[in-house]
Amino acid sequence: MDWETYREWTRTTVQYPTDRAEEYLMIGLANEVGELLGKYKKEIRGDHVSLMDKEDELGDVCWYLARLIDHYGLSHQEVLNRNFVKLTDRKNRGVIKGSGDKR
C-alpha cells in the first residue's frame, strides 16, 4: 500500500471530535510513540518483545502522522521534501549536530 492510499483510508477510521482534531491527534501521536518506547524499555530490561509488537506500534504512529498531515492539508511528499531540503542544507553547512531550529 502506498502512503497516499493509506492517508485517504485513514479518513474512514476517524472517531474523534473534529473541532478538537489537532489536539486529539497530537496527544494520540505522543501516546503511540510512548507505547513504542515502552516496548523498547521492556527489551532493555530483558523482556521479550516481538517484532510484531513494535510493528503494531509503528503502524499506530503512522496512522496519527497520516491524520496530522491530512488535517493540515499537506501531502507526505511536501512534508518529506521540506525535511529533505532542511537536513541537506544543514549537512552541507556542517550543522547537522547541534540544537536549535534556526541553525
Q: How would you describe this structure to a colleague?
A:
The protein is an all-alpha fold. The protein has a single domain (3-93), classed as Helix Hairpins, CATH 1.10.287. Helix content is 69%, strand content 0%. The protein has helices spanning 3-10, 21-44, 51-71, 76-93. Helix 1 crosses helix 3. The radius of gyration is 17 Å and the shape is globular. The model has no long low-confidence stretch (mean pLDDT 95).
**Which architecture does the CATH hierarchy give at level 2?**
Orthogonal Bundle
How many distinct helices? 4
The overall pLDDT, averaged over residues, is: 95
Helix content: 55-70%
Low-confidence stretches: none
- Helix/strand order: HHHH
Work out the number of β strands: 0
CATH class category label: Mainly Alpha
What percent of residues are in strands?
Answer: under 5%
CATH superfamily: MazG-like
CATH topology: Helix Hairpins
Termini separation comes to 36 Å
Please state the structural category: mainly alpha
| Alpha-carbon Rg, integer | 17 Å
The 3D shape can be described as: globular
Tally of discrete structural domains? 1
